[in-house]
Amino acid sequence: MRRLCAILAILCPACGLFAAYDMRNQPTAALDGWKIEAEAARPDAVCRSGETVEFRVRLLKDGRPAPGRKLVWSIHGDYARGAKGECVSAAEPVTLRFTPRGPGFTWLKVDCPLEARRKIYARAGVMTDPETVRPGFAEPADFDAFWEEQKRAVRAGAIAPREVPLEVEEPYRGRFELFDVTVATPGTKPVRAYLTRPAGEPGRKFPAMVTWHAAGVRSAMPQYRFAGMGLLVLDVNAHGIGNGGSHEEYVRLYRTTMKDYRFEGADDREKIYFNGMYRRLIRALDYLKARPDWDGRTLIVYGGSQGGAQALAAAGLDPAVTAVIAHEPAMCDHGAPLAGRTAGWPRFIRMKGGKPADPAVARAVAYYDSAFFAARIRRAECLVLTGFIDTTCVPSSVYAAFNSIPSASKRIVNFPQAIHGSYPEFDRVTDEFLAGLLRPGK
């Protein structure tokens, strides 16, 4: 079996923070010395329509093959739902085969029942004809007009930021400056962010980056990693709430008043929760561009999951953005169910009788589809990452957005063994991309 040495960070359902796991060992796949492994036979996990796909499955006990145990498997995803069966583990990997019916994402789940009603399970996924995936429904005819009106509303008020200096902790003290930033945003809560910049260089102008948050509720954070590359970095709190609170405070918000924020107002393009979030991203970009220490040339947007959605939206809404980095972006291909596929998080559209159960939701969320923002990224350099066992922001939805980008300078990197989260491999690819953007003379 292939080995990928990486630490996986998965989303904590309580608060949206990250916990560490090893990519080789899916967190559900090991217990009391038992371990189940699953992978696509093709190293790249990419196939063509009509091809037979092979998965290999192996059960181990204390690191050694464990033959003779019942394994229960099922197929999920686009065009492949419903297939299931049983097999028996063997000394060599067991091969399971199926044929996808069309382009998209298909994944295998293999369970191994253990004693006392316990079980372990693993997943493996493939993409079929990924370059052919397109959004499941058409963009609204007035998409641009709607967002031009949102920008006009946001820009009706003058940018009057409040910047409060914060103490920089060791070992970063003396190397960076940190500010808690508040910028009033007409029609919604203010931008709340942390600004991190290299210290001790008065008058210098910096390339800039805005970093956006994944789903959950948390404070903005210092961004010493990126500021250490010579960047002026604005880390934006997704919800416009206060920064610097306790972990318990943010957990309480996520479990109570903000538990289902993603579905608030989803049947109205003006009242949907993400209208405020996206108004704030417009304001955050305008604030950063107005700073005298921005170099006026380089503006990078970065995020993962919900943050990846914001990054794509920012790049689509503001032509000043020169580069976008989106890790497993959310909000992609809301219309996928109309094409028989699975949408990315948060899956607004439910189907009934082959049609959206709530047509008003389907109409409203189309204005917030990452694929349609991506279609407006004409010049920015783009890096998109996707995982082939990510069942939250499924890779077919990510490809629907990536394939919509018209910029000639775009790249997508597939991680066949990645579930939803953040990996050192993601950081490595990102750092290489940034090094190319920031190299002298570019």
TrEMBL record:
Superkingdom field: Bacteria
Keyword set, alphabetical order: Signal
GO biological process terms on file: polysaccharide metabolic process
Signal peptide extent: 1-19
Residues passing through the membrane, by range: none
Acetyl xylan esterase domain residues: 132-428
Active site: S305 (nucleophile), D390 (charge relay system), H420 (charge relay system)
GO molecular function, one term: carboxylic ester hydrolase activity
InterPro entries named in the record: AB_hydrolase_fold (IPR029058), AXE1_dom (IPR008391), CE7 (IPR039069)
Name of the molecule in the record: Acetylxylan esterase
Species this protein is from: Victivallis vadensis
